[in-house]
Design brief:
alpha/beta, Aspartate Aminotransferase, domain 1, Aspartate Aminotransferase, domain 2, 2 domains, seven-stranded mixed sheet, four-stranded antiparallel sheet, 14 helices, 38% helix, 16% strand, binds ligand C6P
């Protein structure tokens, strides 16, 4: 059980009002709010230890370097990586995926090679591979999504071929919430000798993740979705896969020696971290991990499952409302995407904002998935450790009010109507 009152008290922003109403923040899949402990760690860093790292032979420089490298150790333990050298700091998930495409991808792929993606990927796990395919002559293939919102693994044998060099798949969909069977996918990819990149942007903040148990070659995520600051992310890569990589970007830190016409490379992980790294970001990320582990990832997961189950049940009772993705709360992260018939999702989000409720609306950077669903966009409520059942209820009440305001409610003001089948 999550000590909800105590947890909520740790998030100063939850005390504010929006449009004169208490803020109900249901947009953590876009970015999570920050607890005081993370804000304090950032402030303490800037107030006491701020300096550049790895280069200043003075006390502050050494403290900053120690803090950065301690954060790396913290991330390593959190995701179960075998070695600290396997943890590369990036600016975020997007940056990490592009880094893999431009280092490993350029080296490994050639004409006729295949990259296997899925129809439910975020643009961050589509576009870097499109760019790489244009550059290398590789071909893109995609695992389809079923009507229920799962990956269609029946066709995997046809899609995974001896030419498949990479499978890049999201661990948890940012729209459908689907938790994909990545361990199974990795085992299947291994059989054809393909590498696997897992986009963990929506998984690491919410589920216990052990990269070694999964067997992923690359696993990427963002600090800002897991209570940390923006501007920091992580690329985990198995040492064996990272070791042969030459850098894609040059600059300070990533070199051993530089002459006017050539350079040699630093060891891992710094070889892949050119320039001044996100030092404060790493400090904040370590504090965020401490916070998440203090509450417990299992407890956070159980809390989100309970909220998602309640949301699916209550939203299912709203007439003319369609939910997308798995119906089973255990099979999904704390994300519920939905549409109200006759209302553009942007208008819906604006109406909910009048009640102080923040949801995301639009294509969620997943336009191919929107096409698969046959919609221009959806509204999306996403839950985290600080959300409450009362907030889910408030969302449903606000939706009914929005329907009334817009003259769309078929059965008047008398509360939720009977259950309605939702579709993917
Ligand atoms: N999804 C959302 O509202 P960055 O922007 O690099 O931190 O994360 C990109 C990203 C990659 N993969 C997945 C599965 C994601 O959900 C995201 C970010 C946010 O759904 C913002 S678009």
């Amino acid at each position: 059980m999550i000590p909800l009152e105590r947890v909520r008290a740790d998030f100063p922003i939850l005390g504010r009002t929006v449009q004169g109403k208490p803020l109900i923040y249901l947009d953590s899949a876009a970015t999570a709010q920050k607890p005081r402990q993370v804000l304090d760690a950032l402030r303490a860093f800037y107030e006491r230890s701020n300096a550049n790292v790895h280069r200043s032979i003075h006390t502050l420089g050494e403290e900053a370097t120690e803090l950065l490298e301690a954060a790396r150790d913290r991330v390593q333990r959190f995701i179960g990586a075998a070695e600290r050298e396997e943890i590369v700091f990036t600016r975020g998930t997007t940056d990490a995926i592009n880094l893999v495409a431009q280092t490993w991808g350029r080296r490994a792929l050639g004409p006729g090679d295949e990259i296997l993606l899925t129809e439910m990927e975020h643009h961050s796990n589509l576009v870097p591979w499109q760019l790489l395919a244009q550059e290398t002559g590789a071909t893109l293939r995609h695992i389809p999504v079923t009507d229920e919102g799962y990956l269609d693994l029946e066709v995997l044998d046809r899609l995974l071929t001896p030419r498949t060099r990479l499978v890049a798949v999201t661990h948890v969909s940012n729209v459908l919430g689907t938790i994909n069977p990545v361990a199974r996918l990795i085992a299947r990819a291994r059989r054809v000798g393909a590498r696997v990149l897992v986009d963990g942007a929506q998984a690491v903040p919410h589920l216990p993740v052990d990269v070694r148990a999964l067997g992923a070659d690359f696993y990427v995520f963002s600090g800002h979705k897991m209570l940390g600051p923006t501007g920091i992310g992580v690329l985990y890569g198995r040492r064996e896969v990272l070791e042969p990589l030459t850098p894609a970007w040059g600059g300070g830190e990533m070199i051993r020696e530089v002459w006017l016409d050539r350079a040699t490379w630093n060891d891992l992980p710094w070889r892949l971290e050119p320039g001044t790294p996100p030092i404060a970001g790493a400090v904040g990320l370590a504090a965020a991990i401490d916070y998440l582990e203090g509450v417990g990832l299992d407890a956070i997961r159980a809390h989100e499952v309970a909220l998602t189950r309640l949301a699916l049940e209550r939203l299912g009772q709203v007439e003319e409302l369609t939910c997308y993705g798995p119906r089973d709360a255990e099979a999904k992260g704390g994300v519920v995407a939905f549409n109200l018939a006759g209302v553009h999702p942007h208008d819906l989000a604006a109406a909910l904002d009048l009640d102080g409720i923040a949801v995301r609306a639009g294509h969620h950077c997943a336009q191919p998935l929107m096409r698969r669903l046959g919609v221009v966009g959806t509204a999306r409520a996403s839950f985290y450790l600080y959300n409450t059942a009362a907030e889910v209820e408030a969302l449903v009440v606000a939706l009914l009010r929005a329907q009334d305001l817009l003259g769309l409610r078929p059965s008047g003001l008398s509360g939720p109507a009977g259950p309605r089948a939702s579709r993917t």
